[in-house]
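The freezer alarm interrupted the setup, so I double-checked each line after restarting. Inputs confirmed:
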Amino acid sequence: MPVEFRHVTKRYAGDLDAPAAVEDLSLTVPAGQTCVLVGPSGCGKTTTLKMVNRLVEPTSGQILIDGVDVARHDPVKLRRGIGYVIQQIGLFPHLTIGGNVAVVPELLGWHAARCRERADELLALVGLDPATYRARYPHELSGGERQRVGVARALAADPPVMLMDEPFGAVDPVVRERLQNEFLRLQADLAKTVLFVTHDIDEAIKLGDRVAVMDVGGRLAQYATPSELLTSPTSEFVARFVGADRGLKRLSLRRVGELPLAMPPVARVGDEAGPARARTLADPFPYLLLLDGLGRPVGWLDRDRIPTEGLLEERLAVPMSPLLEPETTLRDALSMLLAAEVQAGLVVDPRGAMVGMVTADQIGATLRAEGGRTAEGRRPAAAGGTR
Amino acid sequence: MSPGDPLLRWDWFPGHLDEIAFRLAQHVAFTVVAVAVGFGIAFVLALLAIRWRALYGPITAVAGVLYAIPSVALFFLFIGITGLSFLTAEIALVGYTLLILVRNIVAGVDGVAAEVREAAEGMGYGRWRRLWRVELPIALPVIIAGLRVATVSTIGLVAVTALLGRDQGGLGVFIVEGRERFFATPLVVGAVLSVALAIAADGLFVFAQRLVTPWARGQGS
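Predicted 3D structure, all chains:
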């Protein structure tokens, strides 16, 4: 279902002279797409979000979901049909994880058995084993796990529209990266119409099909696809907000999974050392990657250190390269490689099994290619999508 | 009570076991009625204060005045209105529970984290449903803490109602008797059992809380 803002203005009562929280905002989020609202604090992005489920009422203008003005709905019933995720999550401490996820289905009057089933389904969907988690209480979970529960809870009644207010803002960068990747995987399957608020331009570029950059005073500065935003910002403000390192940021538009992945010589723990050694010596890549029984990377062996006979053992391998997911952006991948001071990162699937290898050189080559493309004059292209 | 008398004369007990049992039961009954009725009234007052915040000041002010009146004075004040009766004792006892209970119910609900409230509202809880299903359950530990204090203080006050006559007073009757007859044994029995009752009641609430709020364990509340 598309969400459309028509000349929406919000002024807080008694504050007629102060700048509006949101000023004459008009934009459309196409059905099934993710629109990220991004901007400095005070730009009205959260207010914009809260007007969709009527936690805040606009001073003027209309918001339409699937062509129907939200003001025509009873606010309480309206909210049950819209997923809502906030930064502080707000799980109910007195309910189990299963109970928390089943909250909206229960409000909608589903049968208890169906609520429980649905809760299990969603926990599995966000990567939490239902048998382990359903009977726990929120305070027993880590920040990242709680945020997953928050997303599961918002998805429980399968709402066509999701509102997410800095949902990954309170977790550490590693967990945030993983949650973002999970969001992308989920969204690829579920295709909800998502309004997502963040103050982090990198997150906006990574997650948004379209990005709405908002300025202080609640004005829409530019509404465009991430690549348009990076290649042709329409104002000083947007250019500055997007940052001087736009070239580097374009790496955020590309994901590890899109690169042709290389494969180093591999062997499993318990394999014969001799043949593995021979294979590695014949390969241009000077290291052997050891995998465990499930295909998950264990560590590297220098080809000169591979025993000539006997079996390959886990203790022979030296520590790992960074693990990347297919959804990891090239920018994040590069920064992880630089941080770990290594040349190669290993790409694994959601179960942790080895998919392939990405090198810093490969990413560098992509960067040069992308830079070349923009230099060829995509510069001041038409102000796409702005209004 | 002359200095040479023993604190307890064990030969007093055999002839008084029935009375001890009766007074203990009476003490429990007065306490249960006072706390139950007090909680009912306090709950309604707290709901009013939560809904219309302006009422909170006046409600706690009145309850505070009730709480500040010395118990003996309050008991005798009501004799003029309701006579020497069960009702007189209960009206005063209930009056004393209100301040603590109203304050703890309101404080418990106020203590619910803002993000929990926002999440509840954003998911489609109406005002009353949110109060019943989210805020009050989360406030339970604080509400039960209020009930513990109210119950223990009521157990102490029930003993004082013995001054109104033998129809009430529970274990306090032994204390009054002991004082009148300069005889230590009933006085000690009354005091010790009344303290024991308070400790038992408190323990019961702790147990009940663990039962009804399993989620609060290990959370430091």
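Quick read of the result. The two ends of chain B are 47 Å apart (CA to CA).
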